[in-house]
């Protein structure tokens, strides 16, 4: 019975780690994007992406893919685009994409 108790405790701790982060209202995402000058047609697509990619979790981090990469933040941007030195990179560090401050995330160069 002790191994089951240990297993359940570890499982609960892992669940707490996975669900860590702020769940943001989709209207807030849209409003911030509009205030930053994005068109409504673009905003609706990014809000949809955030809904299905992260569930609007600002701290979302995907499980490791077979190639060892991960997805980061509200929009789940893969680390091949945010790693330093990536040819296709956006110029941001992956940790910049995992933030409760969505204005900061949306202003990443």
From TrEMBL:
<dbReference type="Pfam" id="PF00062">
    <property type="entry name" value="Lys"/>
</dbReference>
<keyword id="KW-0929">Antimicrobial</keyword>
<dbReference type="InterPro" id="IPR023346">
    <property type="entry name" value="Lysozyme-like_dom_sf"/>
</dbReference>
<dbReference type="GO" id="GO:0042742">
    <property type="term" value="P:defense response to bacterium"/>
</dbReference>
<dbReference type="InterPro" id="IPR001916">
    <property type="entry name" value="Glyco_hydro_22"/>
</dbReference>
<dbReference type="GO" id="GO:0031640">
    <property type="term" value="P:killing of cells of another organism"/>
</dbReference>
<dbReference type="GO" id="GO:0003796">
    <property type="term" value="F:lysozyme activity"/>
</dbReference>
<feature type="signal peptide">
    <location>
        <begin position="1"/>
        <end position="21"/>
    </location>
</feature>
<keyword id="KW-0326">Glycosidase</keyword>
<keyword id="KW-0378">Hydrolase</keyword>
<keyword id="KW-0081">Bacteriolytic enzyme</keyword>
<keyword id="KW-0732">Signal</keyword>
<protein>
    <recommendedName>
        <fullName>lysozyme</fullName>
        <ecNumber>3.2.1.17</ecNumber>
    </recommendedName>
</protein>
<keyword id="KW-1015">Disulfide bond</keyword>
């Amino acid at each position: 019975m002790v191994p089951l108790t240990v297993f359940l405790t570890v499982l609960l701790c892992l669940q707490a780690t996975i669900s860590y982060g702020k769940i943001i209202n989709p209207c807030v995402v849209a409003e911030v994007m509009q205030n930053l000058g994005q068109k409504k047609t673009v905003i609706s697509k990014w809000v949809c992406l955030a809904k299905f990619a992260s569930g609007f979790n600002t701290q979302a981090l995907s499980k490791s893919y077979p190639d060892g990469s991960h997805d980061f933040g509200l929009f789940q941007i893969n680390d091949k685009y945010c790693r330093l030195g990536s040819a296709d990179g956006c110029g941001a560090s992956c940790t910049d994409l995992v933030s409760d401050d969505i204005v900061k995330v949306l202003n990443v160069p």
